[in-house]
Amino acid sequence: MQWKTADYAGWGRALRAKGRIARPERVSALKDALAEGGPAIGNRRSYGDGALNDGGAATEMKRMDRLLAFAPETGVIEVEAGATIGALLKLLAPQGWMPAVMPGTGLATIGGCIANDVHGKNHHGAGSFGQHVLAVTLMTPAGPREVSPASDPALFRATMGGQGQTGAILSARLQLMAIPGQRMKVLETRMRDFDSFIAALDASKAEFAVGWIDATAKRKRLGRGILEEGTLVEGTRPGPERKPKPVPFDAPQALLSWPVVKIFNRWYGSGVPDSGRKRTRALDEFFFPLDALSGWNRLYGKRGFHQFQCVVPADRAPALKEILNTIARGGVASPLAVLKRMGPGRAGHLSFPMDGYTLAVDLPARARVPALYARLEDQVIAAGGRIYLAKDALARPESMAAMYPELEAWRAEVAKADPAGRLATDLVRRLKLRSA
């Protein structure tokens, strides 16, 4: 197995690492790579340090992306961990199937989706990704081991959303979702403020729903934005296949100055008339809108950005309004934020979702952001919510037990699966997830 020393980062690019990386293509090579130590990582679409191991080794799984089995009559598929969600959608949609839960980018790997127990625009109905995993195969020192809710429920639960700490994910067997075609009917509606947004999300009967919020708006306009509701319909893909446009260089800091972002957010919101707008969109365009720009993280410049994503319980929606207020008053320019309604579905001890509302906001990496993030973190804890580990780069270790009450149960399973701590990442060490 050949190793290459590289500088690498998460998607936010604010946190970086340097170390040896292996890129195996076969199980035998994977076993040799893992023997050297370090975690297995995917396409590094988590935003902070969840896929970093500064100064150590890491095994990149992207080349292990084979389709192992597919039963078109039942929609059960087995696939290696390095396959991406977008590749599966492209392959399966013409055959009437798609992954039941998809994150906001098609470039996330199956292993990454499991390690973070990702959610999608249909979480209020479909739950989290791990709830559609029938079994997962972990690479152990003794060889591959299949784990399912029936064979080892505690280890399975620790693996779903478990940050890859129970073993390198080799492959997974998934239950897909049947779809009528390759089109999505989308209704876009302008929301005048936060309260109307929450009311609309609660009233929505759509299978897929997502809100785009102007995070710079204040006072009466706080929380204004656009609600998108999607319905799967029959028909082949509308229009030609999308070709991503590259972002060729790191943008200057002035591009994300407060006045520029405010103008952009107003322009974006004005694109939908007061009466609303209906559109037919291809599935990948609806589910992965930002993938239209390859390397869009470069728009935040060389210093990168952080993303703050939290969820608060359904009965604490006003707390989310105050969180938005804190962001708007913080004076850190932020493009459009994302608001979604979540259901109770979660598959693991460290799974992010809860029955409530989730808000995600990009924060350019500036000197004032850590202090702002700390204030937001305190507000989340006071509301009984939690921060999404897949997006985090700045949370404090002392917050974890309050946000994740099943942390001790997860620690017990991880201690049995990886007693020497060979799979620990920068995020695991920063947040002291594996130590009491």
TrEMBL record:
InterPro entries: FAD-bd_PCMH, FAD-bd_PCMH-like_sf, FAD-bd_PCMH_sub2, FAD_lactone_oxidase-like, Oxid_FAD_bind_N. It comes from the Bacteria. The keyword Flavoprotein applies. The keyword Cytoplasm does not apply. Transmembrane segments: none annotated. Residues 13-179 form the FAD-binding PCMH-type domain. This is Decaprenylphospho-beta-D-ribofuranose 2-oxidase.
